């Protein structure tokens, strides 16, 4: 037992400096817009609104182990073929990632970062829609793990087709 404790303690000290780190430095709105091009006439329209939600994500390196992740959420509402509103927000965050291999870094940027940013983007969209005079709209939770897994599968299929230049599809 004493040997296990000594080995565990001795092993913990050197690893402390090499522990993988994932930290959120800042969350901010990079861009936000709301348009109601057919107001005020659209408020008199009757019918079932059609909603279209689009998501996008960009990752940019800012320095050694520092990344900006921008989650773009766009919500378009049409009523009787006319645009009622368009709400879009680019919710961004700066993340520090150190001590992870490339695969885990990619996974963190593709899953954990957008999961962190999403509640802020969702709230901004909800506030803009309601402040624009429309009924409140709350975006349902998004499974970014599933989206990332699908993206990873597509990348792997693409790389399998272009064995000689794996980065050709990313240029």
UniProtKB/TrEMBL annotation:
Which GO BP terms sit in this record? protein folding; protein tetramerization; protein transport
- Entry's Pfam families? SecB
Q: Which residues cross the membrane?
A: none
The primary site where this protein sits is cytoplasm
Q: What are the GO cellular component annotations?
A: cytoplasm
Family named by the database record: Belongs to the SecB family.
Task: Briefly state the protein's biological role.
Answer: One of the proteins required for the normal export of preproteins out of the cell cytoplasm. It is a molecular chaperone that binds to a subset of precursor proteins, maintaining them in a translocation-competent state. It also specifically binds to its receptor SecA.
Assembly state and interactors?
Homotetramer, a dimer of dimers. One homotetramer interacts with 1 SecA dimer.
Q: What is this protein called?
A: Protein-export protein SecB
What organism does the record attribute this protein to?
Answer: Denitratimonas tolerans
């Amino acid at each position: 037992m004493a040997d296990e404790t000594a080995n565990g303690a001795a092993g913990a000290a050197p690893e402390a400096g090499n522990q993988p780190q994932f930290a959120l430095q800042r969350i901010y709105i990079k861009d936000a817009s709301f348009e109601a091009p057919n107001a005020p006439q659209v408020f008199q329209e009757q019918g079932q609104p059609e909603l279209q939600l689009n998501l996008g994500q960009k990752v940019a390196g800012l320095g050694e182990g520092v990344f900006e992740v921008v989650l773009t959420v766009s919500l378009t509402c049409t009523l009787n073929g006319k645009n009622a509103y368009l709400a879009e927000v680019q919710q961004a965050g700066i993340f520090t990632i150190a001590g992870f291999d490339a695969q885990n870094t990619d996974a963190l940027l593709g899953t954990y970062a957008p999961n962190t940013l999403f509640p802020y983007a969702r709230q901004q969209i909800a506030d803009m829609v309601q402040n624009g005079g429309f009924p409140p709209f709350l975006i349902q939770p998004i499974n970014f793990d599933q989206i990332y897994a699908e993206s990873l599968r597509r990348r792997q299929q693409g790389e399998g087709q272009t064995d000689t230049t794996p980065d050709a599809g990313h240029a």
